[in-house]
Amino acid sequence: MAIGVACVLLLITVSHFIVVRNAFERTYDNVAEIPHNKVGLLLATSPITPDGAHNLYFDNRITAVDELYKTGKIDFIIASGGDYTKSKTNGCDEPRAILDSLVARGIPADRIILDYEGTRTLNSIVKAKEGYGLDSLTLISQKYHNERAIYLADKYGICVVGYNALPSPIRCNCIKNTLREYLARVKMFIDNLTNNAPNFERQNIDFKIPVKDDAHTNFLGLFYGMEKNSDGEFVDPVLDIIPEITHKEFSSIWYKPIDSVRFEMTLGIYLDNRYPSDAVRETVFKKLNSIIPDGFSYDIDKKQESLLKNGVETTQSVKSFLDGWGNLFNKVSRLNGYGPKYANYPMIVGSRGCAVSHKIYEDSIWATYIIEMSVDYHSSCGCSSSADYYTINKQSGEIFNLSKFLVQSKRSDITALIRREYENEAKAKGFTPSNFTGSELLDKANGIAKINEGMILYFHPYNIGCGAEGQYNLVLHDEK
Predict the structure, then answer these.
(1) What pLDDT digit, counting tens, does each position of 118-165 carry?
(2) How far apart, in whole angstroms, are the C-alpha atoms of residue 480 and residue 476?
(3) Which of 141, 274, 378, 404 lies 20 to 30 angstroms, CA to CA, from 252?
């Protein structure tokens, strides 16, 4: 009997050690530190305990989901649980309870997917992979549960991190769940050894997680936000239908005695309202600060340059950033302000500046943003416009650059590939390609970034002979 007890304790200890070690530094207690995933998998529990008491574990998991969603760390939630209303005393419809609780906190119902086959953790994990086609997730539960779920996710090839909901403050509940978890880990390894498969009926197997940004993966054109509707308002047929983008407009009447004219100066800013991390947001805002001043025309006497050169604070919210630029726009407008004594100046077509920033790619480490500034000096068709693509490390805010790409690239024929892609694009656009070598094209590139198709090497207008066609972008497809 003593040997048997010792073997059982050893099995429990080894199982526990393997699970904890495997999950090391892959669960997070701080929402600011966890990386972004499009989907969060909430491993359900009932809001009511079997004896009819309120379940604080449920409340804490709901709070964790709310934190992740409202800080932009997840975009969709799978509520994975079971409907035990008929099979158990004090049984509950777990996915429905999750839906009701999250909607009550202001999370849209269309961002929540109800999975009724999550009656055990293995079902929830495999359903995410085989049912919903997901290869990355954020797991949401208490730490001990996340650690076991991470081990299962690894087995089925899903890249996951865990966000730890708080445990119950009731001591006896914590002890009971800890003891149960030790046994659950042993059972998991026994299931693995006996090939105990998940048992779900593949309900909703055709459901796909909505991907709102896919239609806008390649922002390769220019001059966004430069059109007017019948009411004279600036609109954009692409940007204005993306719910993740905030659009802000500023305008005032300026005058220029040197030209004896007055005109309407407008500034439009389109930018994402959520970011994968604070580091990414700050990097994006810094880049916007450097390009938005280009949208202010007619700084002949350099009065406004000193006001604009520092931009606004970057370590703040989207609303504060936009409000800051609104205040700067008003300050600059006062320097160029229109007064009654200039009423006889002719009104000419207004000057327009439009800054755009939008995420077009993201993986577990990097996020890529298009950041561009278009300027239209009195219907000159955007004579000063270019788009930059920045791939930003989500943890550090570091920008992926050409030298890093060349170090990481395993292709020995990279310059030949770039030359070949350049010739193909020139032919498609009706140009005779210049005699640049692949190395020269690399030297002339304004930047490089990750997109879904591979890498994009971009060149500002006229940089490599693309002429009036505008910006030139070479897509180096992933090697299959």
Answers:
(1) 888 888 998 888 888 888 899 999 988 898 889 888 888 898 999 999
(2) 12
(3) 274
